[in-house]
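Subject: Sanity check before I submit

Could someone independently write out the structure tokens for this chain? I want to compare against mine line by line before I put it in a report. The sequence has 338 residues.
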Amino acid sequence: MVFTAGQIAGILEGEVEGNPEIAVHKLAKIEEGEKGSLTFLANPKYTSFIYTTKASITIVNKDFTPEQNVETTLIKVEDAYESFSKLLEYYNQVKSNKTGIEDPVYQSDTATYGANFYLGAFSYLGNNVKIGNNVKIYPNVYIGDNVTIADNVIIFAGAKIYSESRIGNNCVVHSGVIIGADGFGFTPDKNGEFKKVPQTGNVILEDNVDVGAGTTIDRATLGSTILRRGVKLDNQIQIAHNVEIGEHTVIAAQTGIAGSAKIGKRCMIGGQVGIVGHITIGDNVKIQAQSGIGRNVKDNEVLQGSPALNYGDYNKSYVHFKNLPRIVNRIDQLEKRD
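---
Independent answer below. Compare away.
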């Protein structure tokens, strides 16, 4: 796809300084820019590259004033980083604007879908599936019975959406995601053998949820496993049955959340965090990577360690931990004196 500086400025509501007819067809880092590419300058550390870049167009902040001659055409905007992100989103929308149904696929006679629908080859739509407008389902996707998918949803290749799941508007489900598999529910009988507890609930993704590749979200035993509006999940995360995650919480890769844990709004959870079941984590909580959470957490706490401590207490304790060999050596020397 080819865009001119004038077209890009129109999309971003920016101003062109240079040739409005110059065209680009690819993106590049500013230090690696070449003819026909588009780049941006947002971090002052990279300012020197704007005088050497070969990129045809560079997006900059409105307050940027070159101190020497630049060859690249400038597009001036309020926030260069935000505008570049907006442009990437626009580019992805144009690139992925597929429509139609490829062959072969399986569609139940009772499945319905809205306008501008795309269904990739070897996909499966079960009974009573309801799909909204502008939904893109890539090849090899399984959609089970009674699943509801709202508008402007993208489901990438190889995802599996089990029966009864509900996906809201503007969600993105990446490759390899499994939504609605059985929760890990077993109970021992009198002989000590573990018997499966039927998992009869579902999974609900509210609007604007992103689910990273390889992540699994289990259906509830009863009721629903719920990801509230604006939740963002990284790759390879495990969300167990009956978990509820509050609005605009973000979780990094390889985190595991056990059953019936409740996580509040606007939390930030680092990678490889483990959270036990049946606890409540408040709003605006920050949990550092590789922490283990085994208790209820109040609003606004910042935690680190396993088991996790208050972030400040953890850092103080870690200083003492690092000094343990010297402390032990001093104690040994004192004992020898005695």
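---
OP: Matches mine. For the report I'm noting this point. The helical segments are 5-12, 80-95, 311-322, 324-337.
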